[in-house]
Amino acid sequence: MTDIVPQLVDWYRREQRDLPWRRPGVTPWQILVSEFMLQQTPVARVEPVWLAWVERWPTPSATAAASPADVLRAWGKLGYPRRAKRLHECATVIATEHDDVVPSDVDTLLSLPGVGQYTARAVACFAYGRRVPVVDTNVRRVVARVVHGRADAAPSASARDLADVEALLPDDETAPEFSIALMELGAVVCTARSPRCGLCPLSTCAWRSLGFPASTGPAKRVQRYAGTDRQVRGRLLDVLRASDSPVTKAELDVVWLTDTAQRDRALDSLLVDGLVEQTDDGRFALAGEG
Ligand code: SF4
């Protein structure tokens, strides 16, 4: 297993994708923004939104000074818009309580709104070069295959995942690069459905050595979008984002006529999440514009 570090780091130096948040001069705040956006959204959709975002709001204080509605508009179609609200709150806390500087240690990062175990470790590692295990879905899958000889990771994350990756981390200055390389391998080579073992830089992989035994876990549910409350919420937000002034319930109602109870539930959830508010005369607007 000791060869895994140079093999993976050399491969990463040769093959890494040119992603804007990995370029020189990108600040810890801008890396944190990318991690918020990438949590549940593919790279190709994040890229243009991230570029526009960091140009418009390059610092936490600049983001904090923006209105919640402008933040929701800039979030655009990335989905899961609660992340935008949490990012705005996170910017406000960093601006007011941390002198506009993103903290560098995992525990302080974990105290910020919207920052969980993965994001805290990713920022500590990628922005500050800290030697901390960074574990996302891709990393869990690669470790399951390379170390444990299993097709897939366990259904849910556990402390064991961190310990597994910690055990692989080198003790020298290549640790952060190794962490990002492990994630990159899972994203582009050791993918969930069709690992491209012919392109893999690793000479040792337990799953390959065992002849690729099939997964023994439950079949994964395919996430659908069409017809879900998420889709309805997205359509309602589209109307509000496009309008400079509050809109009537009737203007919202037309976006989803097939299931009016579902539509009202989606609108209620946007109100509860604080992404939308209702004016005194009963119309609806993005947060802060009511
Ligand atoms: S050999 Fe195949 S399964 Fe093993 S790490 Fe490489 S790509 Fe993944």
Automatic annotation (TrEMBL):
CDD domains in the cross-refs: ENDO3c
Pfam families noted in UniProt: EndIII_4Fe-2S, HHH, HhH-GPD
Enzyme class: hydrolase
Residues annotated as domain HhH-GPD: 37-188
Annotated GO biological process: base-excision repair; mismatch repair
Cofactor(s) demanded: [4Fe-4S] cluster
A GO term, aspect molecular function: adenine/guanine mispair binding
Keyword check for Iron: yes
Catalytic activity as recorded in UniProt: Hydrolyzes free adenine bases from 7,8-dihydro-8-oxoguanine:adenine mismatched double-stranded DNA, leaving an apurinic site
Keyword annotations from UniProtKB, A to Z: 4Fe-4S, DNA damage, DNA repair, Glycosidase, Hydrolase, Iron, Iron-sulfur, Metal-binding
Cell membrane is among the record's keywords: no
EC assignment: 3.2.2.31
The family this protein is said to belong to: Belongs to the Nth/MutY family.
This protein's name: Adenine DNA glycosylase
The species this protein was found in: Mycolicibacterium phlei DSM 43239 = CCUG 21000
Lineage: Bacteria, Bacillati, Actinomycetota, Actinomycetes, Mycobacteriales
